[in-house]
Specification:
By secondary structure, this protein is mostly helical. It has 13 helices and four strands. Strands 1-2 form a two-stranded parallel sheet. A two-stranded antiparallel ribbon has the order 3-4. α8 runs antiparallel to α10. It starts with a helix and ends with a helix.
Length: 233
Amino acid sequence: MSWTDIGARLGVSKQAARQRFNIPVGVLPFAARPDRRLQACLDRAGEEARTDGAAEIGSQHLLAGLLTDGVAAAILERLGVTAEAIRATSHRLFGPPAGAPADAVPPMSTDVACALDAAAHSAAANATDATAPEVRTENLLAMLALDAGSRARRVLTALDVDIAVIKRELQCHITVNPTRPARWWKRRPQAQHGCSFCGRTVPNVGPLVNGPGVTICAACVALAGEILANRNP
């Protein structure tokens, strides 16, 4: 669909739709910035998705990318997790590659954008000063491993990785608090923020459902169901 069509469906302009949803790979929210190791992991995740012929970068690609460098790579390697095992398990759980490797790195999925958002909040919670936090591989691994609904977590579970061990390992480097982003949103007056998808606020769409670093209104839930129904008739 064109940005004009997407904007029309969401009740916003095409410029607003593009600005909200066209997220470049590796761009983090809230003025956070990835450190050198995390940036290398994000680049690797994009290449994993491209080679896989995937339409989007998924959290399973992020998990494979985290094996590139940093604290997350050291933890995963100690637990016997390899990029090859992640790829094989992902194909078994979610289907084989859709086609030949793409010419360009695909965009991030919504799940990945939310995971990066939550990782940025984790970095902010662990920051010792008021400067823009630097997001590290351990922040992202915490969000992927502790999110029971993520594809990355499903891959880890299928590989018989003990999530409690990952959490204990991470505690040596950061304060692991997977509910922190959700509480951060709840502390703010609900009328001051809107749906993460359409941007409309509570007075216009009613109560919002809060998730880790993301909110959604009933209208967007219905629209998502309609989109998925059309994709899988």
